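Pasting as-is:
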Amino acid sequence: MERVAYYNKLDTPAELSSAAVRNRDFKVRSTKSTYHLDFYQVARYFPESSEYQYRFGDNSLVPNEPTFVKSRPIRGNNSNSVLLKLDSVRHFYTVNDPYPYDKKKDLLVWRGAAHQPHRQHFLAQCYDMALCDIGATDNKLETASYRKPFMSIEKQLEHKFIFSIEGNDVATNLKWIMASNSLCFMKRPVYETWFMEGTLTPGHHYVEVSNDLSDLEEKIDYYRAHPEEALSIINNANNYIKKFYDHRRERLISLLVFERYLSQSAYSI
């Protein structure tokens, strides 16, 4: 119930506008997506007359009315953004890590597209660091000088340190990093999903670096010299992610979040 209340912070009745969708209309949509399929797996248990708002895709703003979303800003009043486990095939997957921490390379690794200014800044600041193997895999002109070949997750797991950086909203690699035997480095997150990124504690679940990345080399050096602390954080991260593996409980929580939404909202002309 603590998780239900975290995902759905609606605590007073709220009216929906005429833009609300009836459940029967959502079910017969001809266009299917991973968002649609995940949402349907919850919505199908509720009456066809149920009404709600939903917004699929990356969400960096809070809607004006209670709305089901995949992601929301962590700070500020975000109660109108009601989280469900959406686009799960992209965001909630893990890879078996065959490498013990002490057998991994003493380097920090990152690969990805850098369409956003903050990712381009990360490349500009850290590309030439001796202890980093980072590179852009997109074809943007702005990142041409930071281009490196694609690196699979399996290859990235050969490194002790893996960087996680948000894109349009959350970082898609955060979950598999925290499930691995590698240490996650990242800035304090701005957005959150069903993974409850807002509850992650720096120094306990991950290594926090400053927004300007000026302390990244210092943090890498520190955890290279203190493997026991690195292993403790990795263990905490592994324990954190375990609760998301209980599929029966995950479904129950989703249903309760949906039920709470319907009980706190009403359609209004």
